[in-house]
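Long-time lurker. I teach an intro course on protein structure, and each term I like to show students one example going from raw sequence to a predicted 3D structure in token notation. This year I'd like something fresh instead of my usual example. Would anyone be willing to generate the tokens for the chain below so I can use it in lecture? Attribution to the forum is fine with me.
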Amino acid sequence: MNLQKTKAFTLIEVVLAMMIMASGLFILTNSWSGTYSRLQKTKIQVELAALLERKVVEIEREWKGKPLDSIPEEKSDTFGSELPDYSWEMKSQKLEFPDLSPLFGGEGKAQNLDLGSIIRTFTQHLSKTIKEIKVTVRYTKKKKPVEVSVTFYMIDYDKPLPLPGAGGGQ
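-- Reply from a regular --
Happy to contribute to a lecture. Here you go:
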């Protein structure tokens, strides 16, 4: 009888090769999954920054040249049906300056144009002509919402500076 010896892989060699291939695929899959999630996070952050910039420009255009008192204290909305997972919120408040006039004297003096009264008048004027606005944009599809915000100031340049003793003071 003529038996020919054929070369073949043993069962152990086949199992070992499958284990090496499976671990390589596992590492490759995990690597791709991590890269994909980082890409998604980056995409969301870029969209948040672009939407925030767009909303700030819209608010500046809407209220430019209008009295600061007409700006609402709070306003919020979504970005429409194209971006249902994103929303925005605006909060505004008067910018309050501390009264620094006691540091410069002028309390109890008979003079009308002392440094303390000038500082007091100037800080009150700034409080009336500057409004702080904070805009926040949120992405709410994730378990923990992601948000970015920016604070900027609207200034009413048309209000004249009242000078003490010039008839325009308090």
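Some talking points for your students: The chain has one domain: 14-155. The chain has a mean pLDDT of 83.
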